[in-house]
Structure to design on (229 residues):
């Protein structure tokens, strides 16, 4: 079974065209490591992230750590507070609902366009297989996130996919927090299978409708949940 960090590196795939593999830079390594620890709960919501401490632990200077934290701020996983420092973001129930409401508005249409253009479903099937084998919620969430991204990646609308790409980290944070209260991932896995079947049948409208129902179901569970994710 792959380690959480290796799983993270496997699943955190961009929808941009692939380039030849190369060793990660120090900034990229810091980014991957800190992000994995946030999504696994090792760094708790509200916890302070101190540049000097992280740099010492990762055996690097503070500069790549600082750059990694800036990227994490952009993706919504940390909050930078002037004169206070950097803390792991605490998602409120309202935050999580807003994230999923935005996905509900945009993702079904992105999937419909992508499937209509003949998206390759192999990447999505691989992600589902990895999700089924996952032994922890963060790894499963990252695999599920890769599944969804692979389906809307071919929508050929940079603004649309850019917004969805920007929500991916926050989606994972909300999903893991919700599963900790309501372990609904088995039912969601069945929904993923049905979505993939529609994709492989090249039925764009059905894939979009199943995606809409899938996100709407999770959104309803969020609305029924506690005060924070």
């Amino acid at each position: 079974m792959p380690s959480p960090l290796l799983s993270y590196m496997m699943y955190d795939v961009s929808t941009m065209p692939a380039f030849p593999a190369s060793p990660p830079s120090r900034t990229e390594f810091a980014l991957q490591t800190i992000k994995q620890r946030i999504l696994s709960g090792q760094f708790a919501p509200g916890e302070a992230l101190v540049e000097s401490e992280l740099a010492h632990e990762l055996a690097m200077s503070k500069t790549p750590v600082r750059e990694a934290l800036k990227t994490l701020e952009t993706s919504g996983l940390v909050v930078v507070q002037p004169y206070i420092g950097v803390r792991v973001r605490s998602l409120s129930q309202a935050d999580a609902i807003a994230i999923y409401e935005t996905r509900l508005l945009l993702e079904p249409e992105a999937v419909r366009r992508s499937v209509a253009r003949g998206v390759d479903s192999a990447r999505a099937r691989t992600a589902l297989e990895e999700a089924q084998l996952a032994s922890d919620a963060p790894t499963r969430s990252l695999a599920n996130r890769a599944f969804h991204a692979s389906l809307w990646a071919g929508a050929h609308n940079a603004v649309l996919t850019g917004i969805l790409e920007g929500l991916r980290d926050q989606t994972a944070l909300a999903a893991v927090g919700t599963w900790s209260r309501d372990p609904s991932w088995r039912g969601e896995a069945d929904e993923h299978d049905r979505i993939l079947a529609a994709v492989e049948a090249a039925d764009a409208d059905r894939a979009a409708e199943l995606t809409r129902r899938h996100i709407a179901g999770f959104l309803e569970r969020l609305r029924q949940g506690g005060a924070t994710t």
Q: What stands out?
A: The longest helix spans residues 93-116. The chain has two domains: 15-88, 93-223. The domain at 15-88 is CATH 1.10.10.10 (Arc Repressor Mutant, subunit A). The radius of gyration is 17 Å.
